[in-house]
Every structure is written in structure tokens, then in C-alpha cells.
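Bit of a strange request maybe. I'm writing a small parser for C-alpha cell strings and I need a real example to test against, not something I typed by hand. Could someone generate the C-alpha cells for this chain?
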Amino acid sequence: MELPERIRDAAHLDDLLSEPSAAAIDGIRAADGDVLVLGAGGKMGPTLARMARRAMDAAGLRFRIIAVARFSSSELRHTLEAQGIETIPCDLLDETAVEALPDAPNVVFMAGRKFGSTGDEPLTWAMNSHVPAIVCRRYRQSRIVAFSTGNVYGLTRRGRGGSREEDVPAPIGEYAMSCLGRERMFEYFSARSGTRVAILRLNYAVEMRYGVLVDLAQRIASGASIDLAMGYVNVIWQGDANAMAIAALAHAASPALILNVAGPEELSVRAISDDLARRMGSTVSFAGAEMNDALLSNAARGYELLGTPRVDTRRLLAWTADWVQRGGESLGKPTHFESRAGRF
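Reply from user aminoacidic:
Good idea to test on real output. This should exercise your parser:
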């Protein structure tokens, strides 16, 4: 993968985000069948589905990639279909509609709800804990890769390398609790029905239109101060997270396999903010002070099985500073990564 010094525009960005790694191509080859992407309309879904298509083509296979979402935007459907991806509109809370979805030996589960959780907790629990049960009943014979979140760990002391898969979960807030509920549903059906499952605890994916680095760069550009309460963070290029998820198809197992998907470093929010400000020719101010713990994950086990990140922190900072300074496209969805109370 040849990395550019800067990302020209959204089309160039999507090309980079959907370029498969060697491990992703191997994962598609091992999957040896159609791939159904559930919840494909979110921030990561479109480029993951496109990467799966590109990996399938690179492997010389002719199976289908099928993207399933509500698809409130017809433009997204047209874009995916132009890329050789089939699309099906579906509300995953509708059990009858899920039953009508096509059979597929491979499923990537990306559905979930985070923002807006506070104030409508029942819907959050339904999406994050009930929908997985619906999907597991429908696709109990399939291989399933399910996205989760590092939020299920709770805060861990900095300097120890981040939470590991064997650590006891300690979710803070109802969003994180409902995500642990999601995992328990996949684990239950994996044990009961023998469904092969890989659960990926993601923490945090970034690209140029969304993510922790964009949040920081936008605050710097606007002259707002940076809150240091959550003083340390992991970030991983979304294209690398996509690739690791597709590679995980080859490792789904019963009992369910749990892997962290995260950046390799415990990044100081103060240090990366200073770096972004320097690259943007700006200044940065801070509020508060760093605590001794943060939401951090150790992804060493995931790297062993799913491949290592191709894009390092230095390049991510350079790309982000350039993109935000040029007024590049933004999703306008702050991550609220600084929340220590788990309220989103």
C-alpha cells in the first residue's frame, strides 16, 4: 500500500479506506462464500463493504458482497451498487424482515447505537443487545464477525499497555453496558448453537471526516480549548480496522473469539494536540489536567492474527491537520471521546 503525503478529496479518501490488506484478502479467501454486511450504512460500513468487494476481486473469487441497512439515503445505495455491492434495505429490529434476508455463510455485524443513547436508553439496549439475538437466530449456521467497543473495559491506568481481552469488563454508563450485552448475546448463541463468532472491541477508528483526531483539530482551528480529563487515547486508521475485521472471518470460532482492534500506542492528548497545532500553524490551549486512567486497549493479540496497522500516527496527524486546515468534508459528529461518565 503506497501512502500519499496528503489526501486530495473524499473520493481519494474512500479509495484509501477500502484498500484491502494481504490479511483481508486471506480472510476473504478463507471465507469462501458470500459476505453479508449488516449495518452497512454507518461511518465504517460503506468502505468495509467496498474493501470486501476489492478483496474478493483480488482473491479471484466471484461471491457476492451484500450490504444491509435502513438506507435512508438512496445516494449511498447507488454508490455501493456502482462498486459491485448488492444492497438490501432492512430494519434489523424487524424479525420478519431479517428472516427474509438471503442466506450467507459469512456475516459482518456492524449495527449498533451510541450517540443519542442518553435519553433513549431502551432503544439503545434494543439495538445493541436485542438485535444481535435476532441475527444470531437467523444466521446460526454462518461465520459472524461482530463489532463491539473498548468501552466495555472501562478506564484503565495509563502506562500498562491498555486493557487486554482477558480483563474483566467494567462498563461505565448504559451505552457500554448495552455493548457488553451485545457481546453476551453473541457468546451465548456461539456456545449454544456452535455459531463461529469473532468479537472485535474497537477503540478508536479515525479517518479525515470523523474521529478523535478530527475532533481535536477542529477545536484547535476554532480556538476552543482541549479538555484533558481523558488525557490518553488509542487511535487506528479506519482502513486498518476494516482490514482487520475482514481478516477476522478466517478466525471466527466457537466459543466466540474476542480480539481488540486499536492503535498500538497510548497517545497523549496534550502531545498530539500540540503536534496538530504546529502542523496547522496555530496555537492550542488546554483545560483541566490529565487523570491517571483512560479508555485504552492493547491490540497485540489482534495484530498477531489479523495483521498490523499500515498507517502510523505521524501520517494520521499530518493527513488530519492538512484536511481540516483546507476545510475538508466533515461528518459533523463529534466522538465525545473525552466523556469519563459514559454518557453519549
